[in-house]
Specification:
Blueprint (H helix, E strand, L loop, with lengths): L3 E2 L15 E5 L2 E2 L4 E6 L2 E6 L3 E5 L6 E10 L2 E11 L6 E3 L8 E5 L1 H10 L4 E5 L2 E5 L2 E3 L3 E5 L3 E5 L8 E6 L2 E6 L3 E3 L7 E8 L2 E3 L2 H11 L8 E4 L1 E7 L2 E3 L6 E4 L2 E6 L2 E3 L18 E4 L2 E6 L2 E3 L5 E3 L4 H7 L3 E7 L2 E4 L3 E4 L6 E12 L5 E4 L7 E13 L15 E4 L21 E13 L4 E6 L6 E13 L1 E20 L5 E8 L1
């Protein structure tokens, strides 16, 4: 469960290899002060982070990429890989299909015609301007490219967002279509969808959500909802103002988000969006091999929530979220990086590393109530800095600490002493590491860890953790609890409260 290693283990996700760019990532090397990146033997950059994006490359060419980790005495580790870029495909501009970026004209049909006409490997370009649109449906082997100064703006008219069956809050149900969706196919799977550029996807959710609630025929839409896709790349774009969850990925694999900004609570200028609830930033839902790096998320709810279905339905589908890596990200509002609460298909092998949380209530949470079932395991939160000076939120049934693992999630009252029968709805949470972390919150618990009496948390470790809160640490029902170099400070009450906790 250690992601800080002696080896670099350089890799380049296939989905990030475009006609002119590629992103490389690597493991954090113990003791490294900086990383150097070389392209065909020539140095092209230095960074303190574990990702680097190569730009200005030539389509269809092969390249040798090398990265090295260094301290003050020289090289600690290195690794090399070879990649080949995509061939440059045909480009279509939506204005050639009749679209007008005047902020008034509804362009749904014109943009959809461009998408439908796009050949395999091609790109649909959104030029500068505000293009009002209803729901759009992407297909395999295409790039939607938003040029700098461009904005796709949701029309705010409910009739432009037809009802579709999607998963929401862990269950398949009727939902209003999102601003950007994926097409349905005969075999059920799509591949190689990219949304890139420096433009903005604005769902206009404050207006749309009021209409969704008034009609009440389905669950809310999202800004971006991609389903059943192998190979997803979101790069550089801003996504904002969704009616609820903002970027929702369902049953997707090999996904990368690079330099994406997501705002569901405030826009980038600090203006608050009204009428939006349940406004998660990013929800990988039964997804695998997901890399999120160099992103900024300001959320109304969870910044990132890793999910895998709910209760019996989620267990029946049985698709876990696994191999998820969140690195070098900044979070500016909301509730950090969560595992759950819909986790009935399982969640495993997740890393949250080298991130900053500012006025975010928590760095992370692992949360589920009785009935969800399945296993959450092998989760690492590492090298994180957190400070919450906001009094907007207090501890409650939804959120109970800056660091928290909670198997009584969503319950106002509960009993940590008396077990209930173990069945398929009993969740298992094990092998969780919080390492090299500082948290400070003016509200709530610094650390809250609560397992079930019938199924205690297993192998929970805090290492090199400094935690300050209104209240200190509360821990209950844990088998194999490890603390190494941990300091907890409470403004009120005792700093440590233990109940039925067995040390490692």
């Amino acid at each position: 469960m250690r992601y800080e290693d002696e080896q670099l283990k350089l890799f380049c996700p296939e989905e990030t290899r475009t006609a002119d760019s590629a992103a490389v990532l690597w493991n954090k090397v113990k003791g490294a002060r900086q990383y150097r990146v070389f392209l065909d033997g020539a140095e092209v950059g230095r960074t303190e982070h574990t990702d680097f994006t190569l730009r200005g490359l030539k389509s269809g060419r092969g390249y040798e990429i090398e990265a090295s980790a260094e301290d003050e005495n020289g090289r600690l580790a290195q690794d090399t890989l070879h990649i080949t870029l995509q061939e440059k495909g045909e480009e279509l501009t939506i204005t050639s299909f009749g679209a007008v970026g005047d902020g008034r004209t509804v362009n749904t049909s014109f943009i959809q015609k461009a998408i439908d006409a796009c050949p395999a490997g091609g790109t649909v370009r959104i030029p500068a301007g505000t293009f009002v649109t209803g729901a759009l449906f992407l297909k395999s082997d295409m790039t939607l490219f938003l040029e700098e100064g461009s904005r796709l703006l949701g029309s705010g008219c409910l009739e432009d967002f037809p009802l579709k069956k999607y998963r929401f809050e862990g269950l398949e149900t009727m939902c209003y279509a999102s601003l950007i969706n994926t097409k349905e196919t005969e075999n059920g799977r799509l591949h190689n969808i990219r949304i890139m550029g420096k433009g903005c996807v604005d769902a206009n959710g404050s207006i749309l959500r009021r209409q969704e609630l008034a009609e009440g025929k389905g669950k809310p839409g999202r800004a971006v909802c991609l389903r059943n896709v192998d190979g997803v790349y979101l790069e550089g774009i801003t996504v904002r103002q969704s009616p609820a969850w903002c970027v929702h990925l369902i049953y997707c694999s090999h996904v990368s988000l690079n330099g994406v900004s997501i705002f569901t609570k405030f826009d980038e200028n600090g203006r608050r969006y009204e009428g939006i609830a349940n406004g998660d930033g990013l929800d990988p839902d039964s997804c695998s091999y997901v890399n999120v790096f160099d992103c900024t998320i300001g959320s109304q709810d969870d910044c990132i929530a890793v999910k895998s279905g709910r209760n019996e339905e989620g267990r029946l589908v049985g698709i876990a979220s696994e191999h998820i890596r969140v690195t070098n990200c900044t979070f500016t509002s909301g509730f950090g990086v969560a595992m759950g609460s819909e986790m009935s298909g399982g969640v495993r092998d997740c890393l949250v590393q080298d991130c900053v949380f500012s006025d975010v209530y928590s760095i992370g949470s692992i949360k589920t109530p009785r009935g969800r079932g399945s296993v959450v395991e092998n989760i690492v939160y590492e090298n994180l800095r957190h400070q919450n000076l906001s009094h907007e939120h207090q501890d409650c049934k939804w959120f109970r600490g800056a660091i928290y693992v909670d198997e009584f999630y969503s319950h106002d009252t509960f009993d940590t002493e008396h077990p209930e029968p173990v069945d398929e709805g009993t969740s298992v949470i094990r092998n969780i590491l919080f390492k090299n972390i500082s948290v400070e919150t003016v509200t709530g618990n610094a650390v809250y860890l609560a397992g079930l009496p019938e199924m205690p948390l297993e192998n929970i470790c805090l290492e090199n953790v400094t935690a300050k809160g209104r209240y200190g640490m509360k821990a209950a029902n844990i088998k194999g609890f490890c603390m190494k170099n941990v300091t907890v400070t409470a403004q009120e009450g005792e700093p440590y409260e233990y109940h039925r906790v067995e040390p490692e």
